[in-house]
Specification:
By secondary structure, this protein is α/β, with parallel strands linked by helices. The chain folds into 3 domains: 44-96, OB fold (Dihydrolipoamide Acetyltransferase, E2P) (Beta Barrel); 104-284, Rossmann fold, CATH 3.40.50; 292-371, Orthogonal Bundle (Helicase, Ruva Protein, domain 3), CATH 1.10.8. The chain contains 11 helices and 11 strands. The strands form 2 sheets. It has a 6-stranded mixed beta sheet with strand order 6-8-9-10-7-11. The protein has a 5-stranded antiparallel beta sheet with strand order 3-2-1-4-5, with no helix packed on it. α2 crosses α3 and α8 packs across α9.
Length: 372
């Protein structure tokens, strides 16, 4: 009886040892697999320019082109514009990258449905009428242009001082047309590596076509399209390449269709004349600093939900000569803060006057810092 018990214990012990041994072997295999990853040489990401049977021309991230071999598994499975992985030493193509479901431009862009209405804009009646004619009408009633026999405009350029409502105009017209709003800053198109900026521009327009009707809003377009007398440096040449790609997308064989372009700049005087040629930006709309009547409208918009005493807006309007729409919004916000600090819900004239002085000093400090 005792012998049988010992035999049983021995068998169980052997089973446990076998399990442990199996687990250790699996762990060893996993560790060797992980270790081999550290020993593998990294592969280079490249773009296929053209294919010739078992050879292909690829473009590396630094802009250099090479004719390389294609591994047997990938022959007849890759084509122009595909992204592939190449071995470092011989540049032989060893794998093909699947096309990303999302565009590379997603990290640069704000794609949203704007919630700005025409009622949120004050003192810009003329500008609203013009942008609605060029952007809203072609998107909402394209048949009118077919009946008349003319091509709809491609876009507009908004120019004027900072804070005057150029971005609000673009968002309002996008909301009124139910269009996708794609916003990007011009400086973001100027990329560090050769060819990246041009590819980004191409991707932006491709994305806009896929999500049409859409509006591409390029703020600070002068960062991309400023007139350049000297393009000797590599950085300047890259900016020029990006700009030429932008022009080719506007003028290209692929019709823009329900894609409209709105550019915005504070410095129209430095823009490249090629950008202002008829057929590109079909209308130039100036958005100046608001005059008295316009400033009163802006005050009404930003104070409509505020609890305030009997305040004559005329006195505020006279004190804000030279203020932009953004400045007036800042005044109203600051006046509200002053009331909150004193545990009040009603904003009085004194709060507004103090806020005007604060915003004016801030503008003066920024101006002196700019030119000092």
């Amino acid at each position: 009886m005792e012998g049988e018990l010992n035999i049983k214990k021995g068998i169980e012990s052997n089973i446990d040892l076998e399990r442990e041994n199996k687990t250790l072997k699996e762990n060893l295999i996993d560790l060797r697999r992980e270790l081999s990853k550290f020993n593998d040489r990294p592969l280079i990401v490249a773009e296929v320019k053209s294919v010739f049977g078992d050879r292909a021309m690829i473009r590396l991230p630094n802009g250099n082109n090479f004719v390389v071999n294609v591994s047997k598994e990938l022959v007849d499975k890759i084509g122009s514009c595909d992204m592939v992985l190449s071995e470092q030493k011989s540049l032989t193509i060893v794998d093909r990258l699947e096309k990303a479901k999302t565009h590379n431009v997603d990290s640069f862009l704000i794609i949203e449905k704007p919630n700005v209405s025409w009622e949120d804009l004050g003192g810009l009646e003329d500008q609203m009428m013009e942008i609605r004619e060029v952007i809203e009408l072609p998107l909402n009633k394209p048949e009118l242009f077919k009946e008349v026999g003319i091509d709809p405009p491609k876009g507009v350029l908004l120019y004027g001082p900072s804070g005057t409502g150029k971005t609000l105009l673009a968002k309002a017209v996008a909301a009124s047309t139910n269009a996708t709003f794609i916003e990007i800053v011009g400086s973001e198109l100027n990329q560090k590596f050769i060819g990246e900026g041009a590819k980004l521009v191409k991707d932006i327009f491709q994305l806009a076509r896929e999500k049409s009707p859409s509006i591409i809003f390029i703020d600070e377009i002068d960062a991309l399209a400023a007139e350049r007398l000297d393009v000797g440096t590599s950085g300047e040449r890259e900016v020029q390449r990006t700009f030429m790609q932008f022009l080719s997308e506007i003028d290209g064989f692929k019709p823009l269709g329900n894609v409209k372009i709105i550019g915005s700049t504070n410095r129209i005087d430095i823009l490249d004349p090629a950008l202002l040629r008829p057929g590109r930006f079909d209308r130039l709309i100036e958005v100046p600093l608001p005059k008295e009547e316009a400033r009163e409208d802006i005050f009404k918009i930003h104070t409509r939900n505020m609890k305030k005493g009997k305040i004559m807006l005329n006195s505020l309007v006279k004190e804000t000569e030279g203020f932009s729409g953004a400045d007036i919004k800042a005044v109203c916000t600051e006046a509200g803060y002053l009331a909150i600090r004193e545990d009040r819900v009603n904003v009085d004239l004194g709060d507004f006057m103090k806020a005007i002085d604060k915003v004016r000093r801030k503008d003066l400090d920024e101006s002196s810092g700019m030119f000092g």
